[in-house]
Amino acid sequence: MRMLVYSPISLRFGGGFERWILEVATRLRKFGVYTQVLSTASTLGDEERISYEEIMGVLSRASADYSELPCTRFNLFGSNSPIPRVSGLRRLLNEKNYDLLYFPNAYAFQDLLISALRLTHKRPVISGQHAVLFQNSSFHDVYVSAVTKRLLRVFDAYHVLNSDDMRVFEEWGLSRIYLIPIGIDTNKFKPRKSETASRSFRLLFVGRLTSQKGIDVLCQSVSIVNQDHYLQKNMQFIIAGSGPMSHMIEKLSKQYENVQYLGRVPDDKLPEIYRNSDVLLMPSRSETFGIVAIEAQASGLPVIATNISGPREILVDGVTGRLMRSNNPATLALAMRDLYGLWSNDREKFEKMREDSRINAERRFDWEIIISQIHDMILETYSSFGRKHSKG
Fold this sequence. Notes:
By secondary structure, the protein is an alpha/beta fold. It folds into 2 domains: 2-183 and 367-391, Glycogen Phosphorylase B (Rossmann fold), CATH 3.40.50.2000; 201-365, Glycogen Phosphorylase B (Rossmann fold, 3-Layer(aba) Sandwich), CATH 3.40.50. Helices cover 44% and strands 19% of the residues. The chain contains 15 helices and 15 strands. The protein has helices at residues 16-28, 52-61, 86-94, 110-121, 138-151, 163-171, 215-225, 229-234, 246-255, 270-275, 291-298, 311-314, 329-345, 347-365, 367-391, and strands spanning 2-7, 34-40, 65-69, 71-76, 79-84, 100-104, 125-129, 157-160, 177-179, 201-206, 235-240, 259-263, 279-282, 303-306, 321-324. The protein has a 7-stranded parallel beta sheet with strand order 3-2-1-6-7-8-9, with helices on both faces. A 6-stranded parallel beta sheet has the order 12-11-10-13-14-15, sandwiched between helices. It has a two-stranded antiparallel ribbon with strand order 4-5. β13 (279-282), α11 and β14 form a beta-alpha-beta unit. The longest helix is centred in the last third of the chain and has 25 residues, at 367-391. The two termini are 23 Å apart. The mean pLDDT is 93.
């Protein structure tokens, strides 16, 4: 079987979906599913977090193809949406050597494009919801309510990452909805073998430095904690990532000696950074899933996260971490103090939380489990489409 993936954003952007498709294309190969990826050349004006050479290296091992299409970016009321130019549209229309199409339905006009492609090629389409459905952006949210909600009925199956999106789709009258989370390589991300004596309690943040990820909340909570000189002496904050709010982290690291800013960290360095930390901080305002929470738990780290879609399904509150109120620095600071108290005064209970975090990642999110579910979704969608059209 051949699966065509259309991505509105270049895989070089290196976001959650772009990394997901690299993993999926590689792992579907053992089921005899060959993947071809067509994307626009847009990285949304951001830095490239995955090099073209790295992308081609991964996909070549999976016998997968990748091409980028020239595009034009529409910026309407703050909502960016890359659209292929005429030559790119022609390439999409001429690409007919596939059995099923998958696309991330996250940007305005992409569903219009893919619905036209489905009518032209008469191939089944899976619409994947890898971004927050409603983003508090006036144009985007109006577009979703007025256009996407109706166009979704054109497609043949729907892939969601959390139960909140699934409930919305069910309320919209859709069926054939697959709730399949993102997987994790539990061999790559694993706990450290031994404890280091006489060291600080290490709290880690990994991700984009944006308002969505709660960077301002993180900075305020660090300042609250550091008002206690004992905690400031015994806690260390490690921040890995890049983005438009990096200046806030740079200022914080200059203000406090216990704040270490690593900048953007290559993927191959992340497992070691997780292993050398104790807790992951995830103060996001919105998430579709939250892959860093899985990477952390697989590495044996409890997670302090906002009680929102994604994290609240990944974590087991009180067992593999703590869920807190959104946009609340004081609550985050209190959770950090509580876990530091466990680490310093009840190490056996803290180690049990570490063990439970690892078990949670292994039993629910290991790629060997997840890729089978994705393969089943592809086969069922293809078979259902075939039965429906053979009757017609």
